[in-house]
Amino acid sequence: MKKEIMKKGIVFFGPPGSGKGTQSILLSDRLNIPLVAMGQLLRTEVVQNTSLGKKIEDSLKRGEYLSTSDVMEVLKIQLDKFPDAWVILDGVPRSIEQAEAVEQYAFSGFLCIEAVVFLQISPEKVWDRIRNRLSCVHCQKDYCHKVDLCSNCGSKEFSKRSDDKEEVVLRRLNVFNEKIRSIFDFYNEQKKVYLIQADRDVEEVYSDIIACILPLMKK
Fold it and tell me: Binding of AMP: at which residues (predicted)?
């Protein structure tokens, strides 16, 4: 049996509304790298009323982080679908426990995190973006501006996400800030963190990201 090639991961990390989804999709589309968008996958589980969706629905609505075992279960299933050497991760890891669990994948020859793109943005800018955000009812793709047609599935139905209420957003920011230091230090000690200022034009942010990623892919 042919041995599976270890996947190389690019992680997008930052607070809610920092543009992780937008930038990870841009990178995925332009470099043709598979994207695992954990938040979208989990919301789809809820919409489809799966056993996992029923289990995690309340936690998502409250803006709480899910258990490491639930997140790793979804991640492993998604990664198994891709034969590609590189993969982009958006929304995982979100805690030091998840980071350590992902690290175990490297020891098993399955996945090694090569870069952590850390998007920095102020809380004020976060709320300014999120209050205008809409999500496609059918595929859960997010938009921070008004659109008439989903570019992903063609749907014309959009709604506010249940976790985009102001009190939930503030709770998610607090949770993120509680977790941020340990995860940042974890990857920074490995010299894998790339700090990107995210409160700028989408293409400007992307330009800085690609300047960090391309040299890694050419090694």
Answer: 43, 64-66, 98, 161, 172
Annotation: binding site: 17-22, 43, 64-66, 98, 133, 161, 172, 200
Instruction: Count structural domains, the chain.
Output: 1
Q: What value does the mean pLDDT of the chain take?
A: 83
Residue 121's pLDDT is what?
Answer: 86
Question: Which residue ranges are tagged as binding site for ATP?
Answer: 17-22, 133, 200
Domain CATH for 74: 3.40.50.300
Mean pLDDT value of segment 163-183: 72
Q: What is the mean pLDDT of residues 69-77?
A: 84
Pick out the residues of the known binding site for AMP: 43, 64-66, 98, 161, 172
Closest-CA residue to 216 (of 5, 4, 9, 6): 9
In a domain, 156, yes or no: no
